[in-house]
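Example record

The entry below shows one chain as it appears in the dataset: sequence first, then structure tokens.
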Amino acid sequence: MDITLTKNLYKEDKILFFLITIIFFVPISLILGNAAININVFLISIFTIIRLAKKGELKILISKDYLLILVFFISIFLTDVIALKKIDPNLFSLFRYYLIFVSVSYVFYQKKKLIFLFSKFIFIILLIFSIDIFIQYNLGKDVFGISSNSLHRFSGFMGTEWIAGSYISNFFLFTLIVFVHTKNFKLISPFLLAYFFFSVLITGERMASINYLFISVLILCYFIHLKYFSLSKLIITILGLIIIFLTYYSTLNDNRKNIYKMDIILKLKLENIAQGFFDYNEYEKRVIEIESEKKNTHLDIFISSYEIIKQNYLFGTGYNNFYYTCKNFKNKKLYCENHSHNTYLNILSEKGVFVFIIFFYIIYFYIFKNSKIKDSKIEYQILLIMMIVLLNPISINGDFFATWTGSFFWYLFGIFYGVKRNENLQ
């Protein structure tokens, strides 16, 4: 069916066919890095404009379906002018995210069955990607001889970009769509959950593992609601995931176990509580003493973000100006990084409360308003869960305005909205 769909599409509309092909390449470009992403986004923008011009549909770019998103990016531009009293040329590059959103949602709206073909494509990518990570984990290098340059972080094709776990945990729900209408879905889905959980675990990304567990619990509870699974199957699956984690942890050597243990204790500031469960040796005591004084955890950057937001709550620090403001903060010494490591703090600190309110309304308007959850198809409901997890307010993530994170977010958001628009036509 997919081959027939592809052939018919090529015959009917070659420009749309090439646009879809380029859009499908985005998950691969996310693995390859920022240069590939920027080239990919540029090509998507060009083919979208050509396709819309050919069909006499250029007005779609400013249609009411996308107007709120456009207002969001214009407000980013205006608040920067107000906050910094100058125009940063890099601000114009943010409008590429608007084009990603419009292009992807437009394509998935035009072709209803595309979500199934895309999900199969993602399944193949994740399968190959996870196998490559297994190879790197066991041999130190992947199939292309790429090393992660870390003793406890593994990322396969991504090399030293240690975000493979986040990539898998955010994309793996598409693999469920592949099998959701098959007879063996009830048997296949727990296996998929277990397989990709182990894949995320060995990447060494703590937050990705936590996110994955959160997604797994949400999706399993939802399947119980649909009567796909029984409560006993939920308990068995969760126990299975716990066993996988314990088995994985037991295979680590003492040095690796110690790295994980100390990392979790320090990042979550549990050194005093953990003292009742672990006997620290002299080296560990010294590490805790040194690292505790540094105040360089995600909690510390959240505190710094809060202090900066209090001083710049109307219009923010300005685009890409978080680190400079943090380093020159007058009231107290703050722990500083390039961004807040949280989507909501990121927007509030750099763009202020007005842009944040617009973003918050976007979430409501494009995701939750007019969502026919009860009567909708299961593939749409799975994507809704994906968006809820993606917008998790306590999640730790990259710079919302940066190439990788920004492209990733607006790409997935575009897929969701395109499918939702079709769902609302049912």
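Notes for this example: The radius of gyration is 23 Å. DSSP finds 20 helices and no strands in the chain.
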